[in-house]
C-alpha cells in the first residue's frame, strides 16, 4: 500500500472520530448551559478559567456553585459513563463476534445493578460514597466469574455456552434485584430512589463520582486497548489466533474482565442505561472499520455523546419523570429490531 493510499485509508476513520469528539464536547457544553438557570457559554468559560487559574468558587455565588459543583460533574459523569459503555460494548461484540452483543449479555450489568441496589437498600451509600461502586463492580466481577466457571470445561470456554450462561444468570440477578425492590416498598423514599436509579439518572452527581468513573474508565479502556490486537485476530478465527501465538482463553477472559469493570463502574455511577453499548460500537464500525485500536476509542466517544445528549433531552422535555435509561431503551429497542430484521436472512431456519 502506497503512502497516499495509507493516508486515505486513515483519513476517514480519524475524521469520524474527530467529528464525534466535537459532538461530544458540544453536548457537554449544552449540558452545562441548560437548566432552570440559563447560563451562557461565556459565563461557563469564565468560571472554569477562574478555577483552573487557582481561584475558588464563592459559596454565595449561585451561578458559580451551580456550574462548578452541579452541572460540570453531571456532564463529565455522563460522558465517562457513556464512554465506558461504548468501550465495553465494542469489546463484547468483538469477543462474541456478534454485532448485536452488548455489556448486559453475560449478566455483568444485572450483577452490577444487584450490587448497587443492595448497597442502596441497606443505606451503605450514606456511609461512604465508594461503597456503591465497590459493591457494583464486585458483583459485576462475581457474575462474570460464575458465568465463566459454568461455561468452561476442560480448560476450554465456548463463547456459545458463555452466551447462554450469561442469559440465564442475567435472569437470576434481575429476579434478585426485583426482590430488593419489593422489600424496599415499605420505605417510600428508598423505593423511589432505587427505582429512579435503575432507570438511569445523573442527578446530583459530584466531583467524587467523576473521579470514581474516570479512574475506572481509564483502567478499563487502557487495558482493553492493550489487547486490541489480540481481539482483532480473535474476530477472524480462534485457530488463526493460536497460530499467531495468541493465548485465546487468557485474552478472551481478560477482555471480558475489562468489559465487566467498565460496565460495573458505569452502572454504579449512573444506574441502568441500556443499549448504549449496542448502538455506539455498531454505528462507529461502519465509519472507522473493525480495527479495535480505532473502534474502541471511537465507540467510547459516541457512547459518551449518546448519554450526554440523552441527559440533555431528559432535562428539556422530561419534566422530572423521564429518565436516561428509559430514553435510550426507546431509541435502542427499535434499533435492535432493525438489526434483527436486516440480518434475518443470515440466520439458519429449521
What does this molecule look like?
This protein is an all-alpha fold. Helices cover 77% and strands 1% of the residues. The chain has 15 helices and two strands. The protein has helices spanning 3-33, 41-52, 62-95, 108-121, 124-127, 131-151, 159-184, 188-198, 207-226, 228-236, 238-243, 248-270, 276-288, 292-317, 324-343; strands at residues 152-153, 156-157. It has a two-stranded antiparallel sheet with strand order 1-2. Strand 1 (152-153) and strand 2 form a beta hairpin. The longest helix is centred in the first third of the chain and has 34 residues, at 62-95. The mean pLDDT is 85.
Write down how many β-strands occur, each being a DSSP E stretch of 2 or more residues: 2
Structural class: mainly alpha
Given as residue ranges, the uncertain stretches (5+ residues, pLDDT < 50) are none
Task: Give the N-terminus to C-terminus distance in angstroms.
Answer: 45 Å
What's the helix count? 15
Mean model confidence by pLDDT: 85
Largest sheet: 2 strands, antiparallel
**Residue share in helix:** over 70%
Radius of gyration: 21 Å
Query: What is the approximate shape?
Result: globular
Order of secondary-structure elements: HHHHHHEEHHHHHHHHH
Beta-strand content estimate: under 5%
Identify the strand order in the major beta sheet.
Answer: 1-2
Amino acid at each position: 500500500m502506497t503512502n497516499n493510499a495509507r493516508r486515505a485509508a486513515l483519513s476517514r476513520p480519524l475524521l469520524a472520530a474527530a467529528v464525534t469528539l466535537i459532538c461530544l464536547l458540544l453536548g457537554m457544553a449544552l449540558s452545562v448551559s441548560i437548566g432552570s438557570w440559563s447560563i451562557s457559554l461565556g459565563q461557563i468559560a469564565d468560571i472554569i478559567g477562574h478555577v483552573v487559574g487557582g481561584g475558588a468558587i464563592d459559596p454565595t455565588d449561585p451561578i458559580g456553585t451551580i456550574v462548578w459543583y452541579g452541572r460540570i460533574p453531571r456532564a463529565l459523569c455522563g460522558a465517562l459513563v457513556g464512554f465506558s459503555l461504548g468501550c465495553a460494548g465494542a469489546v463484547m461484540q468483538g469477543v462474541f463476534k456478534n454485532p448485536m452483543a452488548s455489556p448486559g449479555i453475560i449478566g455483568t450489568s444485572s450483577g452490577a445493578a444487584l450490587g448497587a441496589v443492595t448497597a442502596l437498600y441497606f443505606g451503605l451509600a450514606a456511609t461512604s460514597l465508594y461503597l456503591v461502586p465497590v459493591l457494583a463492580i464486585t458483583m459485576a466481577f462475581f457474575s462474570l466469574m460464575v458465568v465463566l466457571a459454568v461455561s468452561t470445561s476442560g480448560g476450554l470456554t465456548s463463547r456459545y455456552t458463555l452466551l447462554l450462561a450469561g442469559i440465564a444468570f442475567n435472569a437470576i440477578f434481575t429476579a434478585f434485584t426485583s426482590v430488593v425492590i419489593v422489600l424496599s416498598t415499605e420505605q417510600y423514599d428508598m423505593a423511589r430512589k432505587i427505582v429512579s436509579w435503575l432507570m438511569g439518572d445523573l442527578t446530583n452527581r459530584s466531583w467524587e463520582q467523576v473521579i470514581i468513573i474516570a479512574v475506572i474508565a481509564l483502567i478499563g479502556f487502557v487495558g482493553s486497548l492493550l489487547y486490541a490486537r489480540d481481539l482483532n485476530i480473535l474476530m477472524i478465527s480462534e485457530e488463526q489466533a493460536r497460530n499467531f501465538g495468541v493465548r485465546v482463553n487468557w485474552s478472551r477472559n481478560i477482555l471480558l474482565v475489562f468489559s465487566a469493570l467498565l460496565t460495573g463502574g458505569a452502572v454504579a455511577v449512573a444506574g441502568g442505561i441500556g443499549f448504549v453499548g449496542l448502538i455506539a460500537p455498531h454505528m462507529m464500525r461502519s465509519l472507522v472499520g473493525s480495527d479495535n485500536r480505532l473502534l474502541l476509542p471511537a465507540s467510547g466517544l459516541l457512547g459518551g455523546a449518546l448519554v450526554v445528549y440523552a441527559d440533555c433531552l431528559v432535562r428539556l422535555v422530561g419534566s422530572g419523570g423521564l429518565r436516561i435509561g428509559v430514553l435510550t431503551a426507546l431509541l435502542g429497542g427499535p434499533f435492535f429490531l432493525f438489526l434483527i430484521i436486516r440480518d434475518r436472512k443470515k440466520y439458519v431456519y429449521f
